[in-house]
Amino acid sequence: MERPKPSIGFVFADRYSVVENAFARRADRDLGYRTIRIDFAAEIEPTTLLVEQHRKGLLTMFAIPGDFTYNYHESYALERIRSAVGQDVPVYVLDYGHTGDEIVDLGNNTFGANPNSPVFMDKLIQARDQNPGVLQALRKNAVPQMEALLAAHQQNFPDSPAGDNLRVLLAFLRWDHLSPVEVVAEEFDPYIPEEKPLERIPNDKFSREVRKIRNLTAEQRDTLFQECSVDFRPRGFAIDPETLAYETTARFGKHGIAAIILEGQLQPLYRYGERPNLREEIIKGIIATSTSNFDTPIVLISPKWSDPDIIDKLRRVGRHLLREKMFIPVDVYMNLIDENYTPEIHPLG
Q: Total domain count for the chain?
């Protein structure tokens, strides 16, 4: 499905006008609109296409070149527009002689604006991003694809119900591949506040909490692992074992992209082909900040155990983080990762 575009009904005063054509090109090319043109020289009658766009919720506004005082053409154009689509679509009178940035309310859902002002440009971008017709069309396209995936599963595996694993897979496909970001974004609270920056813990307290990690009982380790695993808003962590540069992410939902960000920061430091598997070499983890008995953020590191040098790399990383006194690095068994680290159980034997 081709992505739908919001539309602007643009009433031309002069089809040969450079400035008017420039506005239409900018709306189409730079702002992602579909400009539907009506010629002043002809009978001003909103076309069937415009009415259809309005019915689908895609018609964002009408634009009429002129001045704020209204001349005959503008008044007549406004009358015809209102008779066709009603009062709900805003009309902007674009006054190229107006030098101010403000948008002037002319009444009757009609506004005057300098088409070159940044305020009007912001208004165009905002109207484009909030167009209800685009979101509705995207939702309608996403739903059948999800239903088709579920139907295919039920047809191929009639004795296997759609359990949690399948639902997780469908959610992944929908979020990462099928549904446009605008649709997925509707499912999250856009007003979740930014996370506060992590603060360094006083040295004596950091040392006490490192000792506490070393001396945890098996039951305490299990409790701490559960707390780290269910942290409501985990932060992402990634560190390069060669340069010891690391990256953290704090914004909700971004804990999985710290390695991608770090790779982008490190790649320019190397000649082409010098570290072709840089992202694979980066060690990833999750920062838990909601544990009950620790004020120091705990980094739960999940290394790539197939790397034959991973133990030495983890020791180097652990020594560095403990010297920085910002995080306490642990493995999935809640063992402290330091310069003498040896895994309790090596996943690959």
A: 3
Instruction: Note whether 16 and 125 are same-domain residues.
Output: yes
Q: Is residue 291 part of a domain?
A: yes
Same domain, 223 and 173: no
Instruction: Please indicate, yes or no, if residue 337 is contained in any of the structural domains.
Output: no
Give 113's contacts (C-beta < 8 A, 6+ positions apart).
Answer: 92, 93, 94, 95, 98, 103, 104, 119, 120, 123
Cα gap 10→1, rounded to integer Å: 26
Going 98 to 101 to 106 to 108, the CA torsion angle's sign is positive
Count the Cβ atoms, other than its own, within 10 Å of residue 99.
9
Categorize the per-residue pLDDT at 207 as very low, low, confident or very high, splitting at 50, 70 and 90: very high
Q: Which domain holds residue 93?
A: 7-130
DSSP string, 255-293: TT-HHHHHHHHHGGGS-TTSSTTHHHHSEEEEEE---SS
Is the pLDDT at 240 greater than 90, yes or no? Answer: yes
